[in-house]
Amino acid sequence: MKPTDRIKGAPTFADLEDARRLLAPLLDPTPLLGAPGFSRLAGRQVRFKAENLQLAGSFKIRGAYNRISRLKARRGVIAASAGNHAQGVALAASRLGIPSTIVMPEETPLIKVDRTKGYGAEVILHGGSLEEAFRKAGEIGRRRRLTFVHAYEDRNVMAGQGTIGLEILEAFPDVQAILVPVGGGGLISGIAIAVKSLNPRVRIIGVQARGAAPVVRSFQEGRIASLPSADTLADAIRFKQASAVTMPIIHEYVDDMVDVTEEEIAESMVRLLEESKLVAEGAGAVGVAALLAGRVSRRLGRVCAVISGGNVDLNMMARVVEQGLSRANRYLVLRSQIPDKPGRLYGMLTHLSQRRINVLDVRHNRAGWRIPLGWVEVELLVETRNAAHVQEIIRSLKEAGYKIERAERGAR
């Protein structure tokens, strides 16, 4: 394994230890939580590194504070971000008494803008993408002579994030694998350097959303890959291109890169909320999603998943809950065509009621080319317990003479 001082831009293990000392007065270690429910589901010992409980709701304060605290010129800092990095930089700068400016895309949710302002930053909305905000931040920074704080292409930022790895090994010394969300790659770079320096046998596995996985492709192909577009509910790791700074570190220190689907992310967010009472944003749940989806070798019996953040928009969370419950066979959407006559819908609902099946929503549709004259299409949303209960409901309705079609998840 190549020493980090031979990889351009990479922090050394000494940098991580120094960051740990610097952060100690500011940050208590986040808890490493047992997860008995997930351990049963995954068939192994699972623990969660709860960075969603960190100051500002994510791991970003670690790297931001480690970077900003080392500045000699303290005229101010500037960053481009649509969320967690913005809040981390704003809070770190505020704690250090340094002015901060954050450029955010114009369509950034208002709650994220307000939180960033609440931590003391001047927020400038510009452009329709993070790339445009990034360019604008560079222009403003040069004009005002502000220090740009990069979210991941900075050795002090990576060193700050790497303190998570030190904490995991202290609390879970016999861990066999650590699952880390990957966006730009700063978090996994820091954690991998920390862990491999102390215990090279621990496997570091990076996880991306399938709709935005340039690092997975780069890792597999041995080059810096880019995508034509990136789309995922895990907006904190929605990147189109891998980083030329972090990819060499990832190639050298990370054991594997995997991806997960949107449905798997949504299900994991819901299961974290229900099983462990943890609110995780999409990016924070991808490690758990990889575990539950079987992307991690069964030989690895002691696993830690990093829950990197919990800053989720509540409007988004409501949609995710419905999607996740559907994925977990807790919601079932059924579609049927019945004669458009009095009492026919009542008969179907009575059939379900007698079997103590809770109907959450009913929709009628009389229009449409596929609905015969004199018939109505009925769509039902019912509450279910598990996959076996789903099949029981469908079988019961079919035996009662109803033609039932299970609607696609998310069709509502």
Question: Which labels suit this protein?
Answer:
single chain; 412 residues; alpha/beta; six-stranded mixed β-sheet; four-stranded parallel β-sheet; 14 strands
Number of strands: 14
In percent, how helical is the residue content?
A: 40-55%
Helical/strand content category: alpha/beta
Which sequence of SSEs, written as H and E, runs from N to C? HEHEHEHEHEHEHEHEHHEHHEHEHEEHE
Proportion in β-strands: 15-25%
Please provide a written account of the structure.
The chain is 41% helix and 18% strand. The chain has helices at 13-23, 36-42, 60-68, 84-96, 110-118, 130-144, 155-171, 186-198, 214-221, 247-253, 262-275, 286-292, 314-327, 344-354, 387-399, and strands at 32-34, 45-50, 77-80, 100-104, 122-125, 147-148, 177-181, 203-209, 256-260, 302-307, 331-339, 359-365, 375-383, 404-406. The chain is globular, with a radius of gyration of 24 Å. The model has no long low-confidence stretch (mean pLDDT 92).
